[in-house]
């Protein structure tokens, strides 16, 4: 037997299949991924799943091109890993140090070739593939005419996906909350405008589910469910959105660390839904005095997250700056650091928008952003490919 078949080494700790984990007391976590032999039989996989369930945990079974990998979901202290590792058909039990595993690049790489992972197909659009994706539309859907005029504009500018908020998260109860807050009938009407505009222009649509109670309604009309920055920590909402099986556009909270953000993304993945599109949209600005921007875009998070996970990550320079005069610059910067696309708020007359007027650009301005960003993406990805750096 080859040496590498017999043990694996992670963070200085060695785990021998069928033997005790060495240095057990120093570890904060135990092995939590069961890797099956490439020829494992269905009944062998079934047996591992049963044993995990017997311990009161859930098993996430991923059938990859290479092999089957079983992720354990829940409190792993209850699991007897030695027993699992000794079951027929099991190649190894692998520890993962991060609090997320189902969305980790390490996990995905065991299942399929790297170039095939993290690709999300939504109708005619591919997110996380070789080409970046542009999501654009109004901050909020205000009327059918407003939405359609903006939708026509962004489509012409080259956008792939249409956005528009119906349930708006607002800091003050005294500000306008979107058409979704004007009763169920109005909410459904506004959502249907979005769906119709998407259908007419052959653009998938995305809109926010601000709470668990509207997840099913949003899922009925939208191709992608958005979870806003303020809701990043809302486990029940993440689980409900994950359960729909629809792709989830998951925004980072303005105070969340990267590990924290990815740990919450794992709640969606734990529902068997790995169609998660991440979005960096800025952190609370630091320091005294005037901030000049609404939030601070943390662009280093983009390549870091791409190394950690296989999920695509987009950048939202609209909320990230709060300023329409900075959107071109920050879009270019986002492309330079390898973002898989952008989400940009657009309006034919930004000044008249009911929400976020200061950060919306016109469809003509969007066209300039898209054309320039395509060029930046091409240059950057060519160099990365040449140097064999993961480009997506
Ligand atoms: C939005 O995209 O409509 C939005 C409200 O953004 P965020 O949740 O990032 O503030
Ligand atoms: Mn907005």
Structure write-up:
- The longest helix is centred in the C-terminal third of the chain and has 24 residues, at 363-386.
- Residues 1-30 have low confidence and may be disordered.
- The strands form four sheets. This protein has an eight-stranded parallel beta sheet with strand order 15-14-13-12-11-10-9-16. The chain has a four-stranded antiparallel beta sheet with strand order 4-5-3-6. A two-stranded antiparallel ribbon has the order 1-2.
- It has 13 helices and 16 strands.
- The protein is an alpha/beta fold and 392 residues long.
- The protein binds phosphoenolpyruvate (PEP) and manganese (II) ion (MN).
- Residues 139, 319, 345, 355-356 line the site of manganese (II) ion.
C-alpha end-to-end distance:
35 Å
Helix and strand pattern = HEEEHEEHEHEEEHEHEHEHEHEHEHHEH
Contiguous low-pLDDT stretches (5 residues minimum) are 1-30
Tally of contiguous helical segments: 13
User: Mean pLDDT, as a whole number?
Assistant: 90
Fraction of residues in β-strands: 15-25%
Broad structural category: alpha/beta
Bound molecules: phosphoenolpyruvate, manganese (II) ion
Helical content stands at 25-40%
Note the quaternary state here.
single chain
The shape, in one word, is globular
Arrangement of strands in the largest sheet:
15-14-13-12-11-10-9-16
Radius of gyration: 22 Å
Sheet of most strands: 8 strands, parallel
How many strand segments?
16
